[in-house]
TrEMBL record:
Keywords attached to this entry: FAD, Flavoprotein, Membrane, Oxidoreductase, Transmembrane, Transmembrane helix
InterPro entries registered for this protein in UniProt: FAD-dep_OxRdtase_2_FAD-bd (IPR003953), FAD-oxidoreductase_2 (IPR050315), FAD/NAD-bd_sf (IPR036188), Succ_DH/fumarate_Rdtase_cat_sf (IPR027477)
Transmembrane segments: 34-53
Cofactor(s) this protein cannot do without: FAD
Species classification: Eukaryota, Sar, Rhizaria, Retaria, Foraminifera
Domain (FAD-dependent oxidoreductase 2 FAD-binding): residue spans on this chain: 70-390
Native source organism of the sequence: Reticulomyxa filosa
GO molecular function: oxidoreductase activity
Protein name: NADH-dependent fumarate reductase
A Pfam family that the UniProt record links to this protein: FAD_binding_2
Length: 429
């Protein structure tokens, strides 16, 4: 196994990941207000049932023990929202909230979503872990890395910054300035030691944190869930279909969902709440009749395989749009440069991600001739462009692209730096 790890050679394929400037969040609630703080990249949309009420009404409604806070989705966004909401409600009510005060509705039969698949970790500048390892970083450098994404016109991740000026700057400020605290939060609240820190693509310093053993996403979500499972009402196989609106106030007052816990007799139910948070993920695997992926794909991203689970169909985006939510940057569908190919199923539409950390730890990309052709730590969009150039060079026709795989090569030092998780990927090949 050690010999395998020291010369790891894997095939991979381009993957699509849909991302927006919206991010997974830490939810802060003070005096009835809901403030969204950036955590890691995932779509989150918050719609308050009391959006048009007075400050006093907001606090009364949200704090009402008869009306729960409803969270749609149980990935890291949903869990982070539930954890901080529980803390905030405890402070507001001066007692521990009843279990039914926070309800998480999950359409799958288990929690986690795509967050469980994350391996490379979470980005954070000026974290305690960086300080302890004497890693120099700054918030300004992190901000520059975020804005640098705009340089490549094909990378539309932050087109919002071009359209909305200072508002966009505020979002980037929240994302970067809250990032270190988000990583520290995982340590202090859940005992997670994010001591493996890599410099991944598009970053100027090592700031991508993960635990030294085990997949980052799985460990983080499970740690948060273990703390919440007896405090929060998690309901599985409950697919939210509609946001309920009060006809007079035009505010969200709850949800309609399909309870599929009894497979033989699914039941439509209504749940009223003081606030609704949509943490229901993206649409990178949306091949439904009203596919957002097909609608907004600009560069044939809908033709690429994905690592996203079958649940990533943009449900929350669609529901919010139906009640008048303004959608932005919907074509910000980012392509990830590396994903593993199963030799037995080379055309499978769902792939395992070849995580960024493989390159962050020193892995190099080589073409079919064994030649390195790109700076592996460049922006994802630029790495993808270089890969496509290689595909055209090896194609039979100038109008086509070759399907020959690329490979990622790690020496023993890089393999050891990646850590024991490498064994999982070795077994795949």
């Amino acid at each position: 196994m050690q010999r395998q790890a020291s010369n790891l050679l894997k095939n991979f394929v381009l993957l699509r990941l849909n991302k927006t400037i919206g991010n997974e969040v830490l939810l802060r609630i003070f005096k009835g207000k809901i403030i969204l703080m950036s955590f890691v990249s995932f779509l989150l949309l918050c719609i308050m049932a009391t959006a048009q009420a007075s400050e006093e009404q907001k606090q009364d409604v949200f704090c009402s023990e008869e009306l729960p806070l409803i969270i749609v989705g149980s990935g890291l966004a949903g869990h982070a929202a539930a954890a901080d909401a529980y803390r905030a409600l405890s402070q507001l009510r001066n007692k521990a909230p009843a279990r039914g005060s926070i309800v998480v509705l999950e359409k799958e039969d288990s929690f986690g979503g795509n967050s469980m698949k994350a391996t490379s970790g979470i980005n954070g500048a000026l974290s305690e872990f960086q300080t302890e390892q004497k890693i120099e970083d700054s918030l300004e450098d992190f901000k520059e890395c975020v804005f640098e994404t705009k340089i490549n016109p094909k990378d539309v991740m932050y087109s919002y910054t071009d359209k909305h000026g200072e508002k966009a700057n505020e979002l980037v400020t929240v994302l970067t300035e809250s990032s270190g605290d988000a990583v520290n939060w995982l340590r202090h609240e859940f005992g997670l030691e994010m001591t493996s820190i890599s410099q991944c693509g598009g970053h100027s310093h090592p700031r991508t944190h993960r635990p030294p053993s085990g997949p980052a996403g799985t460990m983080i979500v499970k740690a948060v869930h273990s703390r919440l499972q007896d405090l929060v009402d998690f309901r599985y196989k409950c697919e939210v279909k509609e946001l309920l609106i009060d006809d007079e106030t035009k505010t969200v007052i709850g949800v309609k969902y399909l309870d599929k816990s009894n497979a033989d007799k699914p039941e439509t139910k209504i749940l009223r709440g003081g606030a609704v948070i949509l943490a229901s993920g993206g649409y990178a695997n949306d091949h439904t009749s009203d596919s957002l992926l097909n609608r907004y794909s600009l560069m044939h991203e809908n033709e690429l395989p994905t690592t996203n689970g079958p649940f990533a169909t943009g449900d929350g985006v669609k529901m919010a749009s139906k009640i008048g939510a303004n959608l932005i940057d919907m074509s910000a569908i980012q392509i990830h440069p590396t994903g593993f190919i199963d030799p037995k199923k080379p055309n499978e539409r769902t792939k395992f991600l070849a995580p960024e950390a493989l390159r962050g730890c020193g892995g190099i990309l080589i073409n079919n001739n064994g030649l390195r052709f790109v700076d592996e730590l460049d922006l994802r969009s630029k790495v993808v462009d270089k890969e496509r150039e290689q595909q055209k060079k090896s194609a039979i026709s100038s109008n086509e692209r070759s399907n020959e795989p690329f490979r990622i090569l790690l020496n023993e030092e890089a393999a050891n730096k990646f850590g024991p998780n490498l064994g999982f990927y070795i077994k795949m090949g």
